[in-house]
Amino acid sequence: MEPDFPIEFVIDGDPRSLQASAESLRRWKDQIESEIRARIPQGAFLTDIPIRFSFYWFSDAEEPGDLDNMLKPIIDASVRVLIRDDQQVQSIQAEHFPPSRPIDFTEPSSELLRAVETDRPCVYIRFDERA
Fold first, then answer.
1. What is the pLDDT of residues 70-118, one digit of tens each?
2. Which residue, 45, 47, 82, 103, is most buried by CB atoms nearer than 10 A?
3. Burial class for 127, CB neighbours closer than 10 Å (0-12, 13-18, 19+)
4. 3-class SS at 86?
């Protein structure tokens, strides 16, 4: 059985980057994997389809940090849980929303709306079929 897309979730707190300690990075990847597993049916097989990945960081800081290094651990955590290979991720949208940036989404999903309305910092993650 194929997973149902989109798979989206919100995690409270700041994302971890590749520069984080090994233990912090391991806990972060475990948390991502757990969130994905909670949203796919038991017994679902890994998908082979091209994936579009979205990452929105709603931070309590104005500076974005090293955004590109925050993406790799999340994508790596999806391998062998949702996708077979990170090369399936063929589209990436990543944005930092500091407190001063207005937030305006057209027709946000209920999960994205939850991220917008929750206390900062938090991260919204979405995996979807690439159109």
1. 999 999 999 989 999 999 999 999 999 999 999 999 999 999 999 999 9
2. 82
3. buried
4. helix
Distance (Å, whole) CA 86 – CA 89: 6
Which residues 6+ apart lie within 8 Å of 9 measured at CB?
35, 36, 38, 39, 111, 124, 125
User: Pairing relation of β-strands 51-58 and 89-97?
Assistant: parallel
Q: Can you tell me which residue has the tokens 């206390």?
A: 119
Give me the helices (H) in the chain, please: 22-37, 67-78, 110-117
Region of 7 on the Ramachandran plot (φ > 0 left; ψ -120 to 50 alpha; else beta): beta
pTM: 0.95
